[in-house]
Amino acid sequence: MSLDANVLGTDMGYVLSSVLSEATGTVYVVNPTQDLAKALVTDCSEILTNDTSVRLLSDEQLLKEVMDDFIVASNAAELVEADALTLRTGDVSEPNSLIITTNAAVTMIQASDQVAGMVADESEFVATVRGSYAQAFESATSYPLRTPAISSVRSTLASEIGDETRSDFDSVLTTLQTARGDGKGLNEVTISLLVAAKNNVLLYDISKWGEDVGIASKATFSRTKTELEESGLIDTEKVPIDVGRPRLRLKLGHNQLASASSDQLAGVAQSLLA
Length: 274
Fold this sequence. Notes:
By secondary structure, the protein is α+β, with helices and mostly antiparallel strands. The protein folds into 2 domains: 7-142, Endonuclease, Chain A (2-Layer Sandwich); 150-273, Arc Repressor Mutant, subunit A. It is built from 12 helices and 10 strands. The strands form 2 sheets. An 8-stranded mixed sheet has the order 1-7-6-5-2-3-4-8, with helices on both faces. The protein has a two-stranded antiparallel sheet with strand order 9-10. A hairpin with a 7-residue loop joins β9 (234-239) and β10 (247-252). The longest helix is centred in the middle third of the chain and has 16 residues, at 123-138. The radius of gyration is 22 Å and the shape is elongated.
């Protein structure tokens, strides 16, 4: 099926899904905005199958900013592992975002609260545009996505720490629009420590899991633990072991956090950190 009509909506995810749902084979996404890149991996992942895969060509700085969000990056990693998404960076001179399927070249335009996909489907034009960006993609630089796939995070958290901690982790993520470490929200390390504290997990265990799965180093977990402890969000208690220094058990350190349900945990933590 070919896309033969312009698509208009108020939501990037809706417009992008409408375009991709009619595509097969390799689709090129060129010069995406942050909203488009985020919608691609969070709203359209089910559309990308063995029959449809995306080759995304972006400015490197934009892709870094988008992938600083753990929610976006971990979903992108899932698609990369499934060979449904390939990320590359290079000089992109195109002023608009383009989606190029085998049958159409769609210019994505976002203005105020409206999003439009403007379709050009003349076969020779589409073939020319597609050939040009296929060549540009081949000469572009592969983007090193270091965030683990969300399925790996969830499965290892359940097997190595426990199902309840994994469930709490999922609940927190579903309440967040972003998970960044830039002061605008909770990042993946903070979330991991909070749900670990909610379940009285040892710092050693959660930090080892986090390092093994690829979220962050043990040192980062330890540093973040100290920051949360100084902010009064978590407490620790020493747990003696047979050999070596006692290990630290994480506990929630504020009454509001201790009484919060898992889907309230992020909101309460953010309000206490504000």
